[in-house]
Amino acid sequence: xxxxxxxxxxxxxxxxxxxxxxxxxxxxxxxxxxxxxxxxxxxxxxxxxxxxxxxxxxxxxxxxxxxxxxxxxxxxxxxxxxxxxxxxxxxxxxxxxxxxxxxxxxxxxxxxxxxxxxxxxxxxxxxxxxxxxxxxxxxxxxxxxxxxxxxxxxxxxxxxxxxxxxxxxxxxxxxxxxxxxxxxxxxxxxxxxxxxxxxxxxxxxxxxxxxxxxxxxxxxxxxxxxxxxxxx
Length: 232
Ligand SMILES: Cc1cc2nc3c(=O)[nH]c(=O)nc-3n(C[C@H](O)[C@H](O)[C@H](O)COP(=O)(O)OP(=O)(O)OC[C@H]3O[C@@H](n4cnc5c(N)ncnc54)[C@H](O)[C@@H]3O)c2cc1C
Known about the structure:
Elements: E1 4-7, H1 11-23, E2 28-31, E3 43-45, E4 51-53, H2 65-72, E5 84-88, E6 91-95, H3 99-106, H4 115-124, E7 127-128, E8 131-132, H5 136-231
Parallel strand pairs: 1-2
Antiparallel strand pairs: 3-4, 5-6, 7-8
Bound molecules: flavin-adenine dinucleotide.
């Protein structure tokens, strides 16, 4: 019988299982669907005997002494250092940008103390948009123009949005009116149907009256005939 079941033997599941088992004396069932532990950080030796990360390269970083101490119970460490270089115009330069990057890119040999002055001068020659500008003042003018154009476009979009909203309102009103007319028309149809029924009823009554009138006329004719006979 287990106290806990943990799904997934990656960093999270493995650490939690270890903590529960060793610190709280709990019995833990750790379930993993892959054929190995370690989750996405899993590494193994390939056919050439090289240690590879199956799911992509992983580097361990921490500035926590506690984490380092905890992991040291399960692993040995090896000295390691990595450098990331970016390829810019055929040159490999350090990333993130540091003094070496600037010196390599600009062909300079500055010290860290000279860097702020270099950046301040570079700001004066800032490039904005397609052209190069001479001063920061000119750069701000260009930015102003660009922002002005953008504001105009946003206003245009907003106006178009309002027009669409108005048209939508008009369509909605027309649809409401159509719905109302449909209801009225349906009521009228029922009324016409009732009237037709009444008319048919009246026609039937009239037909009955006509029959009775015909009979009365025949009887009258007979009477007139009798009267004619007795008068002669
Ligand atoms: C390409 C890449 C590079 C990375 N580089 C770094 C790096 O340099 N440094 C760094 O600190 N971090 C790096 N990470 C992040 C690191 O991999 C994750 O932070 C870490 O693996 C997360 O651990 P986890 O236990 O939360 O999840 P995972 O490692 O994803 O483990 C989850 C485990 O649960 C299992 N599982 C999931 N569903 C089920 C289920 N239904 N039943 C059974 N088992 C299940 C999975 O098979 C997996 O083994 C990188 C990640 C990737 C993908």
